[in-house]
Design goal:
about 350 residues; alpha+beta; Beta-lactamase; 12 strands; globular; Beta-lactam/transpept-like; CubicO group peptidase, beta-lactamase class C family
Length: about 350
């Protein structure tokens, strides 16, 4: 285990012991836990691989579904600028099948309330039944739109929440149509560069030669896997980033303006008072001491990650593991770490 701490300010508890305890709960070839506390960063790294190819905190990790928060932030910015409306019919930008689908809006796609299935029917075999076959790789934009044309929604849009990679992927061509530019360019120009996210890229092929991508492993923790290429599903899961860049991204949410504030406004509340689930336009929200913590997890077939932040204590946690297991140990450890930090004396 390696700890790279920053000295905590007076009156703030050192997060290093909590980081070490969280790190011990995760077993994977490469593990990184990173904390930002009022802008002061601490990293804890470890793993079962005795000889990592580079310092683990410098690797680029696959973000999986955490990518969705970037895509929805892009949507929120375009909506704020009047390029499209969150509640305008999606049919203004994409061809939609008849029936309830004609009522789908960008907000429905962002909040997983469109009624669309998790993935298109013709992707189930490649993405679900045979996950290591990298079934997303050959899925083109035309194929995505063709799948939409023959898909019936499961329920009337806006009436239920059903997690959908399909829906988030469709935000890509919808935003392209509205803004008149390719999705990668929109993301770079309106999100990545303005937030100074210099080490965040769309796909492993975009990594510079000087930066190494973390290698995912199967559930056994040993068998390496090739990078996951998301193709038309890039808006739902195609980004790679470093622990440092993700902390920069989270820190921007701790001092939000404009669209960064918009994506933190609660949109949906589900469940009972004892087990309340709250969702913003893109983040999950849990109530803890001093105010809400917001978070999102991500996974590919060989990696898992987590990003969360607690505005009241100006705390953010990023976590990565190069193993995808059913228990999501790194996600649980990072979620608990953020809760523990939120309850302790923070920055003043």
């Amino acid at each position: 285990m390696t700890l790279r701490p920053a000295a905590p300010p007076d009156g703030t508890e050192d997060p290093a012991p909590l980081l070490a305890a969280a790190l011990a709960r995760v077993r994977a070839p490469d593990v990184v836990l990173a904390v930002s506390r009022d802008g002061r960063r601490t990293y804890a790294t470890g793993g079962t691989d005795p000889d990592p190819a580079a310092p683990r905190e410098e690797l680029s990790f696959a973000l999986g579904s955490l990518t969705k928060t970037f895509t929805v932030l892009l949507l929120a910015g375009l909506a704020r600028d009047g390029v499209l409306g969150l509640d305008e019919p999606l049919g203004a930008h994409l061809p939609l099948p008849p029936g309830h689908a004609r009522r789908i809006t960008p907000r429905h796609l962002a909040t997983h309330t469109s009624g669309l299935p998790r993935v298109p029917r013709d992707l189930i075999a490649g993405a679900v039944l045979h996950p290591y076959a990298n079934g997303y790789a050959g899925y083109t934009r035309d194929r995505l739109l063709a799948a939409l044309a023959r898909t019936r929604v499961r329920h009337a849009p806006g009436t239920r929440r059903h997690y959908s990679n399909f829906g988030l992927a469709l935000l890509g061509p919808a935003l392209e149509s509205a803004a008149g530019a390719p999705f990668p360019d929109l993301l770079a120009d309106r999100v990545l560069r303005p937030l100074a996210l210099t080490a965040t890229t769309l796909g492993a092929d975009a990594l510079p030669p000087s930066r190494l991508a973390a290698v995912g492993r199967r559930g056994d923790g040993r068998t390496p896997l090739p990078p996951t290429h998301m193709a038309a599903f890039d808006p739902a899961g195609g980004l790679l980033s470093t622990p440092g860049d993700l902390l920069t991204y989270a820190e921007a949410h701790l001092r939000p303006t404009a669209a960064l504030s918009d994506v933190q406004v609660p949109q949906l509340r589900r469940g009972s008072a004892r087990r309340r689930e709250t969702h913003t336009l893109t983040w999950n929200q849990h109530e803890v001491a001093g105010g809400p913590m917001l978070f999102h997890a991500g996974a590919t077939f060989g990696q898992q990650c987590f990003l969360g932040f607690h505005p009241a204590s100006r705390t953010a946690v990023a976590a990565f593991a190069t193993r995808h297991d059913r228990t999501s140990a790194v996600v649980a450890a990072a979620h608990r770490l953020l809760q523990d930090l939120a309850r302790r004396p923070g920055a003043r």
